[in-house]
Structures are given as structure tokens and as C-alpha cells.
Amino acid sequence: MWEKHTLRGGFLFALLCLSITLIAAACTTSTNRDNQTTVAPDSQQILRLPIGSTDFTTLDPALVQDGGDVEAIQTIFTGLVQFDNKGNIKDQLAASHVISPDGLRYTFTLRPDLKFSDGTPLTAEDVAYSINRTLLPATQSPVTNYLNLIKDYDKITGGQIKTLIGDSLIVKDPRTLVIVLKQAQAYFLQTLTYPTSYVVERKLIERYGKKWTDHLSEGGGAGPFKVASYSHTLGLDVVPDSFYYGRQPRLKRIEFRISGDVNTTYEAYLSNQYDEAAIPISQLDSAKQRPDYIHTPSLVLSMIQLNYNIKPFDILKIRQAFDVAIDRDLITRNLLRGVVTPTHRYIPTGMYGANPQVVKGPDGTAGTAGDRAQAVALLQQGLQDGGYSNLSSLPTITLTTWNTPGSLKMANVLVDQWKTILGVTVHVNSIDPNQYEQTIGTGNLQAWMYAWQADYPDPHDWLVVFFGKGQDYNSMHFGQNSSRMAQEQQALQNMMVWADTLKDPRTRANVYNEIEQKLASETAWIPLYQAASNFLRSPRVHGIVDNPLGVINPDDWANIYLTI
Amino acid sequence: MGTSGRGFERVSRGSVTSTVVRKAPDEPEPPLPEDTRQHLSPLQISLRYLWHDRRALICGGILLFLVALALIGPPIYQHIGGISPSDLSGSIGPGLYHQYYHEELSRQDELPSAQYWLGTDSVGRDILARLMQGLLISLTVAVVVEIVDVGLGLLVGILAGYYGGWIDQLLARFTDLMFAFPSLLFVMLLVGVFGSSAATFFNKVPLFGDPGNARLLVVSVALAFTSWPMMARYVRGQTLQIKEQQFIEAAHACGTGDLGMIVRHVIPHLLSILLVAAALDISGTIIGEAGISLLGFGVTDPGSSLGLMIADALDLTATHPWEVLVPTVVLAAIVLSFSFLGDSLRDALDPKRNNC
Amino acid sequence: MLQFLVKRLVSGVFVLLGVSFITFIIGYFTPVDPIRQLMGQHYTYVGWLQLRHAYGLDLPWYQQYYNFLFHCVKLDFGTSIHYQNRSVGDILKDGVPISTELTSWGLLLTLLLGIPAGILSAVKANTWIDTTNMTVALLLYALPGFIIAVFAQVMIVWCNVQFGLNWPVANWGTPWHYALSDIQAKLVPVLIYGAAGYAYFARLARTSMLEVLDQDYVRSARAKGLSERAVIYKHALRNALVPLITSIGLSVGLLIVGALFIERMFNIQGIAHIAIDAVSQGDFPVIQATALLAAFGIVTGNLLSDILYTIVDPRIKLV
């Protein structure tokens, strides 16, 4: 009898233990799952983004240049088309668009019942007004050239005609707008993704004039969010716009806050005051280990541009020698802590027109560690070609760079490498960042560091802008110089012009890839690396698809939310 | 106080007067005992006082050490050490890797070792070498600024104080103007305007011609320009006081001309005061130069300055505090030494101390 | 007194004119092209010409200066080049309250703590109180503000991480508004600003007090049999404060100028921060306006200290 009791007792006890364990396990796992997937209640759906050490330069889409400003503007305003997170053009305010067979007329049909954030109806007239306003001299926009494909662009920006409405901006009816181009170019729609063509509310501008961006809480845009408050010393708050035509954002508030320099912002992020932060170079090593580290290549290339008109960079082999001597891997690994990609590209990866295959350097390989022996050999040949008897008869070589610590360090490393491998002494000339562009623009510098970010992701913005004939940014005098390569270069320039007329995107891309490889083999400039965005984002934030364009499509805000 | 005229040594100040015993005029005076004490000039008295002031000695010693470090340190340091492998250049000797601009990207952020006595910074440069160069720069700038400062201040202040009248008024207005100008803004503006042309202009000048240092001259001149008004005011005030003193009257009575008056009587009095003022001011200049380099307007890479070293290391304070500690401590040491030295000098040169 | 004030007013205007002219000329001859800077990557020659014209930068220098003065009288300082469409007046209106808040609280702290500390040091000269006090003061004085600021920030982050606090590492909060979050943001910068001033005033007060205590009339007062307390507070203190008045007056004048390094380190959007950014951006309307503002502050401070001087020491005649 006693044994039966103990057996039953033992059995019950075991059952009890087992059930406790099971329940405990169930509880823990369910709470774990809850932690990961518990969506924050509405009162906590607030995304806090730092914007750096100063106020926005401007929130007027017609004037904006700075990337941070563009981010904020793209939540409040929107245009006819925008990129999706894969880089394809997607209709926004436009429900559809049609391109005429000759490529000169783009007809946009707007969605029905569009409204501004204050409820005022938005029609094709407002779209035409906004684009026209950007081009009017009175607006003083520094970025009108995004719209330079529109017919009579020169006349309106030059003040010779008063308006383009009725001329190249034709309002057929309240829902139909036709834009006429001055020549058929394949990349026109890309240029419309930039804020210069976003729609702004005429009523507000006419009432407040130049200060209208201080009154955005009263209306102004048609984006997924509208302004709740804007302080020039604290920051910007936006909340969902109930009149937005697409899906409503899941976030209830975005707070853009003035946060301080990179270090301060980073510290503040670690103290949980922001949901995102850029990483200072000195912290990169430790940041890369963190689970919230995000690395996306960006459409930024860094390079050294060499002037064809100034000796000795009119000699092909000398240019190649300088290129092959550089150990990009060492620079990337040690100076930049491995967060950029060394490259020979002239069109960065991640956009339409980027070469699907690796681009080879002047040494015929894709290697980025440099080739000592070949560099020396190339230099010897170059000296002969140029008629220099020895190294000391080379003219003085000066590398110009920005007068900032990071750039100076980079320049000194490059100078060191050239000295060690080629035996050539290069002087460094540092210039204030404010004067940099204008000094380059004189076209008299011998060699200078440069970096370029895509205005719109099209090969035109990468190759034609720098190597095209008569382009403002062709300070290297590519094609129009007195070197022996000028003829070949002019042929390439013509090829680029022809490529822009091609209608089939794939053919066009192939042509550009061919041009790019030619440029790379002949050291049209010395590519260094493709930059990347490296930042930390709080694991509470879900739904953001990072892409090299750095754009969040207005409709994608519906996928973004915060968890506890 | 303290002319060489011995007759005035006994002049009393304050309420305690020495009494002179007067004998009746018809009695012959007893012979006075031989006065065998050594009569030291006030300068010698001051020096003696300084010598016994421990604080002054220590500070002076520190400063002398730092100056020596800046001047003869680099050549010595570049001969100490063995051959070491380098990223790009094969094997190199201390002549290269102990240079202040030489970078070894694979040796970043190291702590002190046998090879790098104070470790390396964020691009693998030897911190001790940079420190010595930075000291040279900081001290040179300080000296140049003080010379201009004192020179201008002396000139303007004496003229204003001695002659008075319209010169005084004009100079006062001018000093007001310079005084009202926010000094750092002025420096930044000047560097912004003349900075890049200075680089090409001073290419051939030693030290200032080295890469990254050309703007120093502009910074020095700008700093001096904004600090001389204080000095001039001070000098003017002291000149006014001195003018009222009796020995000036006496010199006038002797027929000494203006120039002689200024050179032989006023300036010597001022020198001690100026010395003290300069010593106290120099710390401000050094901090000013450091601050300007920190903001990016002064010395730039590959040059080195204490301010620049601090700026470079600021980002790394949390991860590599050693790098920001070294220049900070040295900067503080210099400033404190000059301050203490100035205090001691002022105490030593204080007229009340010169046994009256 | 009236005559004195008028004279000073006239010289003050002269000074302001001089400052504005110097800034203008430096700005005019600078190689920095603000329009080029504004256009950045989107530069076109035609656009550049148009923008220059719109900002009146293609006029001859005397005309530009005259226009500037003319508008100044109407208190219109022009439009910022960098922050297009923002008037300089608006930018100043945002920055001045912030700068003055920081410097006012800092000055208050300095005076309330520094002067009594210096006096105490002097009274107890050469005791351990004196030595520690002066050592602390000297350390604070020698270490540049930016160093202390950096260490302070590191401390804040460390405390945040260790104790789970949420103290902001930078920025200012709402000016002249004292919710808890505002106090958290403002406490450290004010302390640091006060610290540097504390060192200065403590040393000054000590030196001044020591000199006074050494004077004959103090000896007489003691000889007369007055209590030490009376000697110090009734006779010595008043005279010791006289040399401090100049400095206090000047400090009040500097309230508007702002604290350059602290604003930089803590990213406080005050006048000094705005001025530095403007110099980097070549934004001349802003530079001119802030230089004028700073000069105005200094001139006012000078005037204030002179007036205070006469009130405190009737022997001084206003010249």
C-alpha cells in the first residue's frame, strides 16, 4: 500500500515538474516572440532621425541641394514620378504616363481626387505651376539644371520669356499635363524624381512669399506626411497626411532633430536618443561588430582627376603609371577602415547603366592592390614617350585636395605611395572646401581629388557630365586638348551623344559600358573607390529597404513601423 | 620703482617713516661707520628673489625642457631606434619613422613602445615626434605674437600716455575699434582670405613654408593684432602713472629731452611690467592658437600643432584616451608654467619687495 | 554725465562703423565665392551670373557697402546666402536668446561662486584653503574650454550607459524654458562656461583683495581696533571690488557674443555657432550682422564698466 502511494506520488510529482517546465518554456518563448514582433502602440510609433549640426538649409523643393534636406522634403512633398526601392520609375501623382514616339512629348495623367495636405484640390495646373516656378529667375534656384531638358529652358531661366505654361508645360485638362522636351533624351523621367519638380501649393506661396516654408503646418505639399511643427533651432516634426492619395504611413510621427556633429550624434544614438546615426570613422571598427550595423553601397565615387592640358599628364603611360602605383586596398583597409569598395569603375554599382561585369584597370586586370613592377615599367615608357630623360626632368607635380583632415590624410598617403613606388615627389596643395569647386572650374589645376554623387541615377550624369564636349565639369579638358589622345577622346564623346538618343535601355546601357571600359583602360581619371553608407539603425525599426539611391518611395512608408 | 640713484633708496612709503636724527647745527657730526653692505641694483635683487622661489624654478625648468625638446629633440630622436618594416617602403630606419609626418597605416593607435616612445596616432604617426613639432609651432607662434604684441603695445601705449592730446584720443579710438572686434572671428576671416595665398607666398620660408604651416603666419599676425589693444591700454595707464612721479620731474628739470626721457626713464620702468604682462598673456596666445587649429583654421595636416593633435584625437577619446591625454597634458603644463612664472616674476619685480 | 554719455555714444557709433567696414572689406576681397559655394555640385555659369545679380554681388564695393548701411539703419540685415530665403534678422532672432541664456547663467554662476571664493582665498592666504582653491582655479583656467567640454561629454555618455539615464549629450532645448529635459540639456554647458570664468574671477578677486589688505588704511583700521570682520567687509571689500568692475562690465558685454567653443562642442545654435558656420560658408550678410552684434556688445560692456567704475569709486572722474 505504501508503495502504491509513493509511486502515484512520484508520478504526480514528475507530472507537476514536467508541466511547470513546459509552462515556463512556453511563457519564455512566447515573451521572446512578443519582444520581437510586438508592434509599438500608436503613441510610440515615433521615428527619431538626427539631421546633423545645423538647421535644414531650406525646405523649399525648388531650392534644395543637400541630401539631408531632400530626405525631409520627400516626406512632405511629392512629384509626378519617383523611384521604387529597386530603382525603377514608379508613377506617383501621375496615374500613368505616355511618351510620344519621337520622344519629345511626355503626357501625364494624374490620379483622380488629388489634394494638398490642407484639403485643397491638386490639379495639373498646380503641377505646371510648380515646375514653372522652379525655373523662374525670381525664385533664384541654384538647381534649375535638373529641368534643363524641357524646351525653352534657356529662355525662361534667362528671363526672355515669362512662363513656360502654355509653351512646354501644357495643361490639357485638370488631370492631364504635357511636358515638351527640347530633344529626345532617355533619362528625362529620372530628372523628374528630384525635388525640383515636386508640387507646391500656390496659395501658400502667394500669401507668405519667401517665408512660406515657415508656414508648412498650414499646407504646402502632397506627400505622405505633413508638417506638424518646424523650429529652426530644434528641428522638424511631421505627421501623416490624411489627404495622401496612397496608403497611409504606419508611423504616427517623424521627428527630425538637430543633433550635433557625427561624434555627438553617435553618442546620442548609443544613449538611445535617436533611431539612426552615421558612424564616425574612429568608431567604425567597433560599430561593425554590432547587430544594428548597416552597410549599403552608395552612388558616390571618389577619384583623382588629371588635366590633359598640363604636362606630364598629357602622356598616356605616365597617367597609367600613377594609376597602377596606387595600392587601393591598403588605403581602403587602413585609412577608411574597410567601409568603402576600391574600384576602377566610372559608373558606380547599384544603378542602371552600371557594368554587370568587373571593370578592369589600365593594367588589364581587375586588381586593386596596384602593381609595383608594372607601375615602374609604365613610368619608364612614359618618360620616353614624353621625351623626359629621367625622373628629375619631370615637371613639378601638385595634387590639390580639400583642406579637411580626412582629405589631407588621404592625399598624404597617395603622395607617400607615389614617392615610394615611382620615386616621384608630388606636392600637396590644400584648398578651402568653399573655394574648391571654383578653383577646379578654372581648368588650370594639374591633378585634384574629387568625388561625385549622382544627381539622378543615369550614366549621363556620370560620363557625359565630365567627359562631354563643352561641359561645365570637364575641367580635365577631355577631348579638347593638345595631347595625342584627343582624337580618340572625341570619338568617345560622339559615342556618348549617340548613346543618349537610343531608346532601348539595354542597348544604351551596353554602349555606356563599352565607353566606361575604354575610359578605365586609358586612365581618363584615376578611380579610387565607391563610397558606402555605413550607419547604425535601431532594431526597433522595421520595413526600410536600403538601396544605393537612398530614396524611400512615398508609398513605402506604409511598410515602415516600430516595435517595442 | 628703483632708479639707480642711491639717494632715493631710503625714500619711504606708507605710514612708517624713517626718522633722521638731527644734531644741533653747531656740533660736529660723529663719523658714520663704514657702509660695507653690498648695494645691489633692483634687477639683481629681483633675480635673487626669483632664484629662491621654488615655484618659479620648477616652471622655468619645465619650460626650458620643453623648448630644448622642441629644438634639439627631433634630430636626436631620429637617430634612436632600429630598422623596422614598413607598409610601403620595405625596411626603414628611425630617420623616417620618427618624422612627424610619416604614416604607417598598419601601426595605428598604438600605445607607447620601444619603437614609438609615446605611441602612434590614428594614421600611424609617431606621437612624440608630432609633439615636438607641435611644441615648436606653438612656442614659435607664441613668441612671434608676443613680440608683435609687446612691440605695438609699447609703441602705441607710450605715445598715448606720454603725449596725450589728440594722439591719445586717436589711439584710444583705434584701440576701441580693435578691441570691439570679436577676435576669433577676425582671425578666421583673415585666415579665410589670406590663408591659401599665404601657402604659395611663404613656400620658401623655413618652418612657415613647411606644408600645412603657412597659414600660421597669418594666424600669428591676426592673433597679435587682436591682443595688442589690451597691452597698449595697460602701457598707457602705466605711462600715465610714471609721468607723475618725482624722478620724471627731476629729469625734466635737468633738461632731458622727450626721446631721452622715454628711452632712459620710462621704458626701463615699463620693462618689468611688460615682462610680467607678456608672460601672463602668452598662455592665452597658446590656447588661442590651439583653439584655432582645433576649429580647422590654423595648422593643418601634415603639420602638427598641439591644438591639431587634440582635434585629431578628440574623436577617439572614448576608445583611445591616451592620444588626447598627451597633448592636453603638455598644453596644460605650458600654460600653467607660464602663468606661475608670470606670477613669480610679478612678485619678484614688485617694488615693495625691494627693501624700502 | 550727460556730456560723457554723448561722447561715448559718438565714439560707439564710430566703432561700429569701423567694424562693419572692416568686415565688409575683408568679405569683399575674400576669394571665397558664396554663390559658387551655394551652387555646389550644380554650378552652371549662367545660373551663377543670375544669382550674383540677385544678391547684388555684382555691384561695385562702395555701392554694396552703402546699401548695407542703408538697410542696417532700418534694421534690415539682408538675406542669408546659404539659408536661402531666410532673412538674417530671423537667424539672429533665433540665435541671440540661446547665446544670452547660456552666457547669463554662466556669468551668474561665475560671479556668485568665483568672487567669494577669491575673497576667501585672500583672507585665508597661504592656508590649505587658499592653495586648493587656487590650484583648482588654475587648472580650470589652464585647460581650454574645449578639453573640459569633451571630457564632460564622455562622462555624460558613460553615466548614461552605466546608470541608464537619458541625459542629452548635446543641443540646448527650448530657450528660456525650464522643463526637466531643458535643464538636463543646459546644465553641463552652463557649468563649463561658468568654470572658466570662475577661475578668472577667483584669481582676480584674490589678487585684488590681497593688495587691498596690504594697504595702509587697512593697517590703520586694524590698529584702531576694529574687528577683523568689519575690516574685511566694511573697508577692504569695497575697494577690492573696484578692479573687478571692469571685468564684470566687459563680461556683460560679452553675453551677446556667445561662447564659441562650448556652442561648437555642444552644438548649441547660438550666435557664435552661427558665426563660425557663416565664415565657413562664406555667408557675408550673416558674418557682417554677427560681427556688428558682437561689437555692439563689447562697446556696451565697456561703457557699462566705465559707468560702474564711477559709481563705485567717486574719485574717478569720467573723461
Question: What is the end-to-end distance of chain C?
Answer: 10 Å
Uncertain ranges of chain A: 1-35
Note the main sheet of chain C. none
Please identify the structural class of chain C as seen in this structure. mainly alpha
Number of strands of chain A: 19
Strand and helix order of chain C: HHHHHHHHHHHHH
Structural commentary:
Chain A is an alpha+beta fold and 564 residues long. Chain A contains 16 helices and 19 strands. In chain A, strands 11, 12, 13, 14, 15, 16 and 17 form a 7-stranded mixed β-sheet that branches. A 4-stranded mixed β-sheet of chain A has the order 1-10-9-8, with helices on one face. The longest helix of chain A is centred in the first third of the chain and has 36 residues, at 2-37. Mean pLDDT of chain A is 87; it is low at 1-35. Chain B contains 11 helices and 2 strands. Chain B has helices spanning 42-52, 54-77, 94-97, 127-163, 165-180, 183-201, 214-243, 246-254, 258-295, 306-314, 321-348; strands at 84-85, 91-92. A two-stranded antiparallel ribbon of chain B has the order 1-2. Chain C is flat and about 85 Å long. Chain C starts with a helix and ends in a 7-residue tail after the last helix. Chains A and C meet through helix 7 and helix 13 of A and helix 2, helix 3, helix 5, helix 7 and helix 12 of C.
Write the layout of secondary structure elements.
The complex is a heterotrimer of chains A (564), B (356) and C (319).
Chain A: H1 2-37, E1 46-50, H2 67-76, E2 81-83, E3 89-91, E4 94-99, E5 105-110, H3 124-135, H4 153-157, E6 169-173, E7 176-180, H5 188-191, H6 202-208, E8 225-231, E9 235-240, E10 253-257, H7 262-270, E11 276-278, H8 284-288, E12 293-306, H9 316-324, H10 328-335, E13 341-342, H11 372-386, E14 397-402, H12 405-422, E15 426-431, H13 433-441, E16 447-453, H14 464-467, H15 486-499, H16 505-521, E17 526-537, E18 541-542, E19 561-562
Parallel strand pairs in A: 1-10, 14-15, 14-16
Antiparallel strand pairs in A: 2-3, 4-5, 5-7, 6-7, 8-9, 9-10, 11-17, 12-16, 12-17, 13-17, 18-19
Helix pairs in contact in A: 9-11, 15-16
Chain B: H1 42-52, H2 54-77, E1 84-85, E2 91-92, H3 94-97, H4 127-163, H5 165-180, H6 183-201, H7 214-243, H8 246-254, H9 258-295, H10 306-314, H11 321-348
Helix pairs in contact in B: 2-4, 2-11, 4-5, 4-7, 4-9, 4-10, 5-7, 6-7, 7-9, 9-10, 9-11, 10-11
Chain C: H1 2-29, H2 34-39, H3 45-54, H4 61-73, H5 88-123, H6 128-142, H7 145-163, H8 180-213, H9 216-224, H10 228-253, H11 260-265, H12 271-281, H13 284-312
Helix pairs in contact in C: 1-13, 5-6, 5-8, 5-10, 5-13, 6-8, 7-8, 8-10, 10-13, 12-13
